Amino acid sequence: MENLSPEQLIEIENQLSCPNGQFGIDIGQNMYSTNLGMITSSINALAIASGNKVLEIGHGNCHHLPIILEQAENIQFYGLEISETMKTEAELKNKEHLKQQSVEFTRYDGISIPFPENSFDKVMTANTIYFWKKPLQFLAEIHRVMKPNGTFVIAFAQKDFMKDLPFVKEKFQLYNNQDLSDLVSKSSFKLISIHNKTENVIGTANELINRNYAVAVLEK
Ligand SMILES: C[S@@+](CC[C@H](N)C(=O)[O-])C[C@H]1O[C@@H](n2cnc3c(N)ncnc32)[C@H](O)[C@@H]1O
Question: 3-state DSSP helix/strand/coil percent for the chain, to nearest 5?
Answer without folding.
Answer: 40, 25, 35
